[in-house]
């Protein structure tokens, strides 16, 4: 007999509002979509603003408590997330990065101009050893971006050998001289980044030639090769990826292709909208834009399926997240922005979308991990605070490695002015121990929605994250203003209320 979880949801409305139709939400436990690769919860670390320096790396001589130069507070917080994979060194920075600048004694490393981000000085005190040691500390896989625009195939080949070779080669010996005896593992690499833009403004046919050339020589010893990722399109230039894939030597030397998509509250790159103090019109426009992720993934997958052997490639959403105007009055740094309950809703909506495409999307990388764009963590000298987005990633940890289950329902609408979006989002999965985990997100900032389990299922446990206002956020003075709280459950809980602007993660079990 087909097992299904039937949920009925009805809105709680103000006196002057109409009553929404009852929604039946069905989770099919018999036909899973696929395993939710933990790498869907991947992170992105770029040499940008205070993302690395002050954010992750303070150096061994810093007064800020650290472990071998990594800030302890940030390190501990990241360990709590079970970070599965980290992408480094960019981003746009990758195509000006030369790996030899970041090895050897720190005092001997050259200072360079970071022409990609603000013209700041890049001290190169965080380089290959620091990145791979951080990955080991976190238990994370590694994802490298190779420099195509200002680098050469030989430079990339040498770097890969320096990192991974267990031989007696000159490069392996140099790594040992610099303090690392055993080789590290490179799990993924991308040849170039945004090659249609900051990665060189390359024509797709020209980039395809470069990709084929680099990929021909980028190999490691043995059978355990890194997965190879093509630098693909953004949401508006899908033809770029299509042309690249027409090259006869590209698809058969690749495991996946990337797509980039950022959520701008106004959809205007010249004035993206503010991180705080925004009106409801920008709340709903932000969520409407981020929901486009589902269509973008569907369009990209259809394009891959239309290319010979393209259907075998994974789709890697290796840059995504909210991008606003920099937050005024906040600690300095390029692309530093405050992180609010709106960002938490965006994170949950996208994670639900990625779960629905778990069979074709093996990795995503939110931009970025610390102090940049939609960050997990914000720092200011010795102070650190986790963001609402951090809390969503922590709440969603049970989904890592679980089996994604199809969800079908018709959501009530949330409307403001001329814009309408679904008020509710949901995703479900069966965890490795056989339990059912369900995420519910209410994008409506004014109306609560109730979910009725009809006596067949009960909530065994759960957490809810919400905020007092649309821009509620954590500050260094109030670090716990937006934080998850456990649900207070009594007996056989068959009705649950999802508050306005909130994210819930529930564990379900049969009702007694």
Largest sheet: 8 strands, parallel, barrel
* Global mean pLDDT: 92
Strand order of the largest sheet: 4-7-10-11-12-13-14-15
Give the overall shape: globular
Strand fraction: 25-35%
Low-pLDDT runs of 5+ residues are 1-20
The tally of strands reads 28
Compute the number of helices. Answer: 10
Helix/sheet category: alpha/beta
C-alpha end-to-end distance: 20 Å
Radius of gyration: 23 Å
Helix share, percent: 10-25%
Tell me what you see in this structure.
The protein is an alpha/beta fold and 512 residues long. The chain is built from 10 helices and 28 strands. It has helices at residues 72-81, 128-138, 153-164, 170-177, 204-217, 238-245, 280-290, 292-305, 341-356, 388-395; strands at 4-11, 23-28, 34-35, 42-44, 66-67, 70-71, 85-88, 112-114, 120-122, 141-146, 188-191, 227-230, 256-263, 314-322, 363-366, 377-380, 383-386, 403-405, 407-408, 413-416, 419-422, 424-430, 436-442, 449-452, 457-466, 485-486, 495-498, 502-510. An 8-stranded parallel barrel has the order 4-7-10-11-12-13-14-15, surrounded by 5 helices. β11, α5 and β12 (227-230) form a beta-alpha-beta unit. α3 (153-164) crosses α4 and α9 packs parallel to α10 (388-395). The chain is globular, with a radius of gyration of 23 Å. Residues 1-20 have low confidence and may be disordered.
Topology:
Layout: E1 4-11, E2 23-28, E3 34-35, E4 42-44, E5 66-67, E6 70-71, H1 72-81, E7 85-88, E8 112-114, E9 120-122, H2 128-138, E10 141-146, H3 153-164, H4 170-177, E11 188-191, H5 204-217, E12 227-230, H6 238-245, E13 256-263, H7 280-290, H8 292-305, E14 314-322, H9 341-356, E15 363-366, E16 377-380, E17 383-386, H10 388-395, E18 403-405, E19 407-408, E20 413-416, E21 419-422, E22 424-430, E23 436-442, E24 449-452, E25 457-466, E26 485-486, E27 495-498, E28 502-510
Helix pairs in contact: 3-4, 5-6, 7-9, 9-10
